[in-house]
């Protein structure tokens, strides 16, 4: 039997939920909408189905208001309608301004499912959107299918005139309060750290309630809860809300610290995987294209959850018109294309790619409205040229942006080719821009790409050079020079954010400098753990101590202590140590290029779309098992075809 | 003191309310959303103001959720915030998905008013939108400022097992029911006619309530209410909801029937003037660009309410992207341009014109995606080539559509010139298309424009020829031929709708055939009154009788009995009998070309933007008074400058 599900305009469910997320941020009892445009589903959805039947019935349940048209005649929704034997054309119109117009058709003939069509006004009939979870009339598609688990505090302490509760680990969810006095107002302070919960002036998230004996507060992130005044019978529990995901990838080695880091990265990352990839579970709880790019890479070596990536990509892009960069950030628009490409190569979902490509082209067209007279991408007055929190010379056209645009042209040319469309335009733009970037930005004397050709300062930072190596824009010779003159040059200012550190480590690993990678993970992530981190922080500066670590953006506790972009080691271990990556969409072919670095033993699994690759190093040997065909192992200069389910064992030395 | 008002993104208030209207249609307890795309305000609005002060306070009331930023620091809304002496940058961000994000700033320094700015994301700072009505924090801008009047039924009759109430005349509003039994369900049938209210199966609008002793039902149009079952103490009243408009224009003559027709046109038209121009107050209660075009022309000779025209024009256009014709109808997109032009010429509101012009250009660009290989406008699969309910040969490119496109190019060229922008592109397109229309569609043998050049049928209908004369596309010679071979040719099928009859009468009057105009008004509108119409019907066929008049679109009572487009005589009397019209934007200059037709006496007033023109014919003389300068009277081949407030008296003969 076909599954009966709620249906909607393809892509609108994703946009609805990502927008809800982006409008849900709060800080010190203020609402904090995004500074960028968010989108909503189409206000009216039109569904259609041709049916041949011997008779039967339909009942249309709608999320919104509308009617049913059978062979041109209108009927009400929520009513059992009999179909006469024969051919029928069924149309359902639903409006829902601000919500998600959707329909669930109960029927013995044509239950709503993926075989239904929708039409966006003057557009063509296309397949509907749906999610298997919403398989009964009473499941509201505006309610996201999270999983829940009740958590009890592990400790309760009276502190001054209040009670401090500790849940033992960071979580996200509803706080349930019982035993309050209806005539007494209570104040609730949420803390990722104990100090944050207790600092009633500067706590990031707070609440205040009165008038009842029990409360369920809205979903928030916390480990500590401080409630004032002290109420003797007050009891709290938390309804932890999370996305039910299954770990598909794993990694372990003989270094306990690194195993611990990996495990905290997993916990941190999972908390931030929700409707889409969030940047941090306390703050911002927004979906940012740059953060999401790193999250996609991490996800592919852990949960390999295609759906969250597609929700994120769609939600970021939103709806037409595109008249602003994603998150207002130039580089984030460009990174979106690269994310889409890496997503496609991993999962090979051509349906998704072909659906989203027309909007991708519109985003690129929008970006090209920002080209300067030399053909380089620049920021318009309201655009944010971000790249990183770093002293980059941002005079005129910034080199790192051009690197991303070069790669955007490359991935667009690849993607349209996969869809059977000529890539000539993108290939030409790619070649032309790449040559121009070399001509305008490569500085032979410095042996590196400079930030700006317009300022005359010839300033070199790591950023553009990292992108140049990451995306193979630098020649082999240039790459060597960049490693020497930039990456391993202490005079070039160090990267300060885990965001860009993720890219730097990628490039160090790609160029074979695994010992630098391990050193950085041990010192930076390890240092964070030593400083008390249970989950990975948004930023870490070894020079700070105590609660100084919790400050950021001018707020004493405004740093996110559970930030997705800190989970980069998951990707690095999978991509460069286990060494598994696709070479054709959907892992139809893939490579395994393992490298144990300095580890004596190392084991792990990488999901490869309907299969896994397991890599296992002990002190003597390497064992590799792939459960599906298409794999090639590269080891010690030789290549080996991987036979499904046959473990290939080779000497380690 | 400056007025303190709610502010929003310019244009969003109009779009919010017109969309609400378009989603409010109901039929036999079904919701009936439009088949065309509707728009909503931007989800997030950003307001901004630079302030220099000696100190003071602000309290930000928001319609939606958000925060206030003073000099970069965030503060909550709904809270009194003190400003230190000096310069401050104030930003307010409000989100409201599905609603109208707006803010009301209470302040002794910078109360929200027209001096505030808003920014649509990456756009420039522009003036906010506001309406003087919303001048206190407790007035919700999502609630439209209608006026209300309690109406009592004039008669109550027991009919079978129910009660029939008659309110004496059609009205629109809330029905209040008192004296019901909570445990008894009652059914309510709304009728524009008594027969409709009593026909429980086929009544267009019905309701069903239970569980309370009194009810306020939602706003609907009706004259009759039938309630079943009969409940002895049941009492009903109606809260009539209407737009408070002042009559600025008037017309009367010695023909009582025509005065009566004029008066019913006024009542009919006023009922349909609400958030925008509705087509009919019972059905569809939608805003259609074609109907609205006629309404604009009528309005200018009656209420001269600029605001309702601007709300209608904006609401019809909606938001980007434009990927569908207005109301799905090719001709309605084109008519929108012409409406905008005639609106501008009347009121001369350059601010409005310059705000809406970028979107107008996008609509034209969209239209041009529908040009065929000969450069003529055709319908794509989901487009509706309407023109009129008539047998037009719609093979390929339809002539009447090209006439409208020619005029659209003309009005666009005029409008951009008024804004100081070069019109060369539009002028060239205008000349080119006009020449091509003549070459492809003018049939010398028929002495008329044919419907289609592609079918080979050389079919002639009135429609394209009427447009050709109305918009001066036909030469003088062609016009003469059209009057003879089309308009006065009984072999050419007659117009059947008051919609197109409005255009035909315009052209007959323009070509000096006032006796035909009077004959048509007397027979068609007069016939409707004889058939029992209190308000003007959507359509009238003298061949029908009794309740046959109430049927349409396959429904026994589906005809609208109070339809705006039937009010055309108001325009005809003002434009061609009183003869007043602007010759420069905002009536800076204007003409008075009165013509009493066959009337022995005729009086009337036409509003002319801050003034009036009064025309008064008795049997001997013509008296014309204008209250402002710029007017020229044309009478009996002579022209006379009109001196403000000086009555010019001339012999009638």
Give descriptors for this structure.
Jelly Rolls; 14 helices; six-stranded antiparallel beta sheet; 25% strand; homodimer; 653 residues; Glycosyltransferase; alpha+beta; 29% helix; 31 strands
Q: Write down how many β-strands of chain A occur, each being a DSSP E stretch of 2 or more residues.
A: 31
State which percent range the strand residues of chain A make up.
15-25%
- Return the average pLDDT of chain A rounded to an integer: 97
Low-confidence stretches of chain A: none
Share in helix of chain A: 25-40%
What is the level-2 CATH architecture name of the domain at 330-385 and 391-494 in chain A? Alpha/alpha barrel
CATH topology of the domain at 330-385 and 391-494 in chain A: Glycosyltransferase
**Backbone CA Rg of chain A:** 27 Å
What is the rounded distance between the termini of chain A?
55 Å
Q: Structural class, from secondary structure content of chain A?
A: alpha+beta
The most extensive interface between chains reads: A-B, 48 and 48 residues
Question: What's the level 1 CATH class of the domain at 330-385 and 391-494 in chain A?
Answer: Mainly Alpha
Number of helices of chain A: 14
State the assembly state of the protein chains: homodimer
Shape of chain A: globular
Q: What summary fits the major beta sheet of chain A?
A: 8 strands, antiparallel
Plain-language structure description:
Two copies of one chain form a homodimer. By secondary structure, chain A is of the alpha+beta class. Among the domains of chain A are: 7-130, Jelly Rolls, CATH 2.60.120.260; 147-242, Jelly Rolls (Sandwich), CATH 2.60.120.260; 330-385 and 391-494, Alpha/alpha barrel (Glycosyltransferase), CATH 1.50.10.10; 578-651, Maltose phosphorylase, domain 3 (Sandwich). Chain A is 29% helix and 25% strand. Chain A has 14 helices and 31 strands. In chain A, the strands form seven sheets. In chain A, strands 13, 14, 15, 16, 17, 18, 19 and 20 form an eight-stranded antiparallel beta sheet that branches. In chain A, helix 12 (498-510) runs parallel beside helix 14. The longest helix of chain A is centred in the middle third of the chain and has 20 residues, at 399-418.
